[in-house]
């Protein structure tokens, strides 16, 4: 068993993010109807469980829930496009994933539900994730210089290693 004391706070946040993701996906699979409000409720329930278990603070939970909602809506919006595939959204081959949660979503979620979610979404899509935020697996592109940052699991967005920029967008 892994020693929790050797994990950094960012590692813990990344793990909790993925746990919240898994719980929300389980709820999506059980939902008879899917809409943005239902998804938000599932993510909020997952957040409350993690806060209740004292894995994260309320403030951390609120941030993670917001970032998770944004990531889920980004993938749903992307996959709703004609011919779009998960590997295109990730920006690398899905077999390189270290994220059990995202792998589960991409391999088992009903694409029709994702398309419905994208069409019904009342959320503003996050266009520019920033340094310091936690993001799920995928590729970010620096808005300043175009450098690509690949995330194989949830993690904190660092400044751009090339130009130290702090604003990014999803890319492939």
Task: Explain the overall architecture.
The protein is built from six helices and five strands. With 172 residues, the protein is mainly α. A three-stranded antiparallel beta sheet has the order 3-2-5, with no helix packed on it. Strands 1-4 form a two-stranded antiparallel sheet. It is globular and about 40 Å long. The protein starts with 8 loop residues before the first helix and ends with a strand.
Mean pLDDT: 77
Q: In sequence order, what are the helices and strands, one letter per element?
A: HHHHHHEEEEE
Identify the strand order in the major beta sheet: 3-2-5
* Bulk shape: globular
Helix share of residues? Answer: 40-55%
Instruction: Please report the total strand number as a whole number.
Output: 5
Largest sheet: 3 strands, antiparallel
Which segments are poorly predicted (pLDDT under 50) over 5 or more consecutive residues? Answer: none
Structural class: mainly alpha
Number of helices: 6
Instruction: Please report which band the strand proportion falls in: under 5%, 5-15%, 15-25%, 25-35%, 35-45% or over 45%.
Output: 5-15%
Radius of gyration: 16 Å
Distance between the termini: 36 Å
What's the domain count? Answer: 1
